Amino acid sequence: MADDYQRFSEFLRYDPSTGFLFWIKSPSHNVKAGDMANSVDVKGYGRVMLKKKAYKAHRVAWLLYYGDWPSGMLDHSNGNSLDNRIENLREVDWNQNACNRGKILGKTSVYKGVCKSGKNWLSLICKDGDQRKIGKFTCDKEAALAYNMWAEKLFGPYARFNLVF
Fold first, then answer.
1. How many Å apart are CA 107 and CA 35, to the nearest integer?
2. How far is it, in rounded angstroms, from Cα 80 to Cα 64?
3. What angle do CA 104, 158, 161 make, to 5 degrees?
4. 120: which of 28, 46, 146, 159 lies 20 to 30 Å off by Cα?
5. Which H, E and C letters describe the chain, residue by residue?
6. Is 28 exposed, middle or buried (0-12, 13-18, 19+ CB in 10 A)?
7. How many CB atoms lie within 10 A of CB 157?
8. pLDDT tens digits along 148-157
9. Which of 65, 55, 68, 14 minimizes the C-alpha distance to 36?
10. CA angle 74, 105, 79 (to 5 degrees)
């Protein structure tokens, strides 16, 4: 692990206040020292290429800040996968990471945990793989607020809330 820190810190500098990685020395002929090292992968996460291998930028940031790789998963607490400021990164387990996921695209509502059910709006929440029905509502905003209340109860600081107002 110390070898990884040495290898990365030889090439990269991390700014914890911005979350950006910069080249200290050029890894190739088309990159200059001082250039930003971050790019974006196809899933919308920051990445860094070093010696022909791709690394997640948030994991490299953690390594350079703490001197060791994270022991498990890392979560972007504000939900922005490109915001690699150290204050936005936290170690989580799979369940905690799942709590902070955004709305699934392609559903009938703009809100997380809300879908159309006939003339009503249904509010659902999932915890530890079990889906729970919160209730039926006449308005999608009411269903979203109900989801928010349950998310706070079940997930605490890992909850991702619907922005209703």
1. 40
2. 20
3. 50
4. 159
5. CHHHHHHHHHHEEEECCCCEEEECCCCCCCCCCCCECCEECCCCCEEEEECCEEEEHHHHHHHHHHCCCCCCEEEECCCCCCCCCHHHEEEECHHHHHHCCCCCCCCCCCCCCEEEECCEEEEEEEECCEEEEEEEECCHHHHHHHHHHHHHHHHHHHCCCCCCC
6. exposed
7. 10
8. 999 999 888 8
9. 14
10. 30
Report the residue count for the chain: 165
Residue 14 scores a pLDDT above 80? yes
Domains and CATH numbers, the chain: 2-92 (3.90.75.20), 103-158 (3.30.730.10)
CA 47/CA 109 separation, integer angstroms: 31
62-103 pLDDT, tens digit each: 999 999 999 989 999 888 899 999 999 999 988 777 766 766
Q: Are strands 39-40 and 46-50 parallel, antiparallel or unpaired?
A: antiparallel
Q: Give 128's Cβ-side CA count (13 Å radius).
A: 1
**151, amino acid identity:** A
